[in-house]
């Protein structure tokens, strides 16, 4: 099986199955975040695409981002990343504290800690949804936060890039906190063999 060719030509049925899977995770993440910040949160995954690592900066933005990343292990190896704009991160922090948006002016340690927790909740929810979809166990490392450009963070997070698939599953993530909308990105970068696990599941006819 040419997994790269399969990924590039992923059909609407397969995309729909993955979208449904990640929307289940998004719903669980929204519930968890609502409890933590004591404010209404909704999270939806309106779109999903397969992108190459090369074009990731174009897809998610070429400016400096706040990026939460987690290593994946167990029956599924790779990394998962939550990517948000710096301004969005500070706005979310303002909402969490119940203060006027714009009050937070820089990404200090308190803001970074809050965003890392939010990113970890999202990544955990998406990883759990994927593990249920595949029927396997996905373990996670403690979250890390980097404020940098996408290529720099990939170099920081991933020691041996040769083990990884050239493609990533890129998930558009719409987050509404207190009726204020944020449009962020989440992506999974698996090892080659683990990307094939997703493909095999899809090819089984779901």
From TrEMBL:
InterPro entries: CheC, CheC-like_sf, CheZ_family_phosphatases. Keywords: Chemotaxis, Hydrolase. The lineage of its organism: Archaea, Methanobacteriati, Methanobacteriota, Thermococci, Thermococcales. It holds the Pfam family CheC. GO terms for biological process: chemotaxis. One of its GO terms (molecular function) is hydrolase activity. It comes from Thermococcus litoralis (strain ATCC 51850 / DSM 5473 / JCM 8560 / NS-C). Gene3D superfamilies: CheC-like (3.40.1550.10). CDD domains: CheC_ClassI. Residues 14-47, 110-145 form the CheC-like protein domain. This is Chemotaxis protein cheC.
